[in-house]
């Protein structure tokens, strides 16, 4: 169980702040790097992050800074919690000052759209000497910050390190399981966001709970197919970072990806909505599926929907019109 460690968190958004809060409450020394001065001031002065975690009072010992050097000083572990498409830049910022003995835990969910790389591949390019892990699973930032019970998976390819990191990051309310299937945990987290957009779109278009259940189930088949093409183990995808996160985000308006899809389904504007990682990951996930000869009709529908080439009802009509097949 966590406590007494020095942990650095890169990213002052909702998830970085929530992880920093639970780890700080568990007795760790937590330092958070945020690029935005207002966020740093609010955390240090008011013990709050009203922009990203409204209504949550933060632990007084949690400190923030815009200076990455001071955040990293003495850190035993770094949590990287910026959006997936900005992960490379954030890691590049700390690369010259991060000791190579410090493990980096990637907490974002996405695939780098410009390269098709998983975030662990990005991290290994930027920080070739550091051990890389991923933390993923069904966990809304607000729930974790509020101390509600949550379970996630912490994965690295080294089982001993995975167990040590899971122990380091578990708190009385955040239970971390360990796994050596890094790729499985990463891909499960990245692809569920695309499916949450699809589920939200079906709900927003008023197509009914039955359609939503069918879509999520068939979406999970797509997720498994794509993840297994990366080398993920099927049982990982049946776990927290896969099925577990689909159950959470494909049925809750608390999910930003679901809400984004919901707005699309209702024909509402999406320009001012908060971060929905599935928007950036959908296109690259479909491209990867195409390159590998994988059937991914729901991912394709999300891409067409995001590009405004199709409506939700047309997308669902197309899915229904596909040739009948065995359920696999
Ligand atoms: N919010 C949640 O409930 C959960 C989020 N995640 C994942 O965590 C990742 C981060 O999401 P949130 O914290 O929710 O996003 P957010 O939108 O709440 O915050 C993003 C933060 O990253 C910062 N940022 C953006 N670009 C940056 C850059 N280039 N360099 C440094 N900082 C930068 C922003 O200033 C902001 O503080 C995403 O991949 C998300 O899928 C995972 C589990 C739960
Ligand atoms: O990943 C999450 C919960 O596990 C958060 O989901 P959203 O990014 O869709 O809000």
UniProtKB/TrEMBL annotation:
Active site feature: 192
User: Does Metal-binding count among this protein's keywords?
Assistant: no
Is the keyword Lipid biosynthesis in the record?
yes
Q: Where in the cell is it found?
A: Cytoplasm
Q: Which GO terms describe its molecular function?
A: glycerol-3-phosphate dehydrogenase [NAD(P)+] activity
**Alphabetized Pfam families for the sequence:** NAD_Gly3P_dh_C, NAD_Gly3P_dh_N
Where in this chain does the record put each Glycerol-3-phosphate dehydrogenase NAD-dependent N-terminal domain? 7-161
Record domain Glycerol-3-phosphate dehydrogenase NAD-dependent C-terminal: where: 181-316
Q: Where does sn-glycerol 3-phosphate bind?
A: 109, 137, 139, 192, 245, 255-257
- Give residues annotated as binding NADPH: 14-15, 35, 52, 109, 141, 256, 275, 277
Q: Quickly give the catalysed reaction.
A: sn-glycerol 3-phosphate + NADP(+) = dihydroxyacetone phosphate + NADPH + H(+); sn-glycerol 3-phosphate + NAD(+) = dihydroxyacetone phosphate + NADH + H(+)
Enzymatic class? oxidoreductase
Q: In which pathway does it act?
A: Membrane lipid metabolism; glycerophospholipid metabolism
Its main localization is cytoplasm
State the family named in the UniProt similarity comment for this chain: Belongs to the NAD-dependent glycerol-3-phosphate dehydrogenase family.
Recorded hits in HAMAP family, A to Z, give: NAD_Glyc3P_dehydrog
Give the protein's biological function: Catalyzes the reduction of the glycolytic intermediate dihydroxyacetone phosphate (DHAP) to sn-glycerol 3-phosphate (G3P), the key precursor for phospholipid synthesis.
Xref: NCBIfam families: PRK00094.1-2, PRK00094.1-4
> What name does UniProt use for this protein?
Glycerol-3-phosphate dehydrogenase [NAD(P)+]
């Amino acid at each position: 169980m966590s406590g007494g460690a020095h942990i650095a968190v890169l990213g002052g958004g909702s998830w970085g702040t929530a992880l920093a809060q639970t780890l700080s409450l568990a007795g760790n020394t937590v330092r958070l790097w945020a690029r935005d001065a207002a966020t740093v001031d609010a955390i240090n002065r008011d013990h709050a992050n009203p922009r990203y975690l409204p209504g949550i009072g933060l632990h007084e010992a949690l400190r923030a800074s815009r200076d990455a050097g001071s955040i990293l000083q003495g850190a035993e572990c770094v949590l990287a919690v910026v959006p997936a498409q900005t992960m490379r830049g954030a890691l590049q910022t700390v690369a010259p000052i991060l000791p190579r003995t410090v493990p980096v835990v990637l907490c974002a969910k996405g695939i780098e759209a410009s390269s098709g790389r998983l975030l662990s591949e990005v991290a290994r390019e930027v920080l070739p000497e550091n051990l890389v892990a991923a933390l993923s699973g069904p966990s809304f930032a607000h729930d974790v910050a509020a101390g509600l019970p949550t379970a996630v998976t912490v994965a690295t390819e080294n089982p001993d390190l995975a167990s040590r990191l899971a122990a380091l990051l578990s708190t009385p309310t955040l239970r971390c399981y360990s796994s050596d299937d890094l790729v499985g945990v990463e891909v499960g987290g990245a692809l569920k966001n695309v499916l949450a957009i699809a589920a939200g779109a079906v709900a927003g278009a008023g197509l009914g709970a039955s359609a939503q259940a069918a879509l999520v189930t068939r979406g999970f088949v797509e997720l498994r197919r794509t993840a297994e093409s990366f080398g993920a183990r099927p049982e990982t995808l049946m776990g927290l970072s896969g099925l577990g996160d689909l159950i959470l985000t494909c049925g809750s308006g608390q999910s930003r990806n679901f809400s984004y899809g919901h707005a699309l389904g209702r024909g509402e504007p999406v320009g001012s909505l908060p971060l929905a990682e599935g928007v950036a990951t959908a296109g690259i996930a479909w491209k990867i599926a195409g390159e590998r000869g994988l059937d991914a009709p729901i991912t394709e529908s999300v891409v067409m929907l995001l590009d405004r080439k199709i409506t939700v009802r047309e997308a669902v009509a197309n899915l229904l019109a596909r040739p009948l097949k065995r359920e696999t």
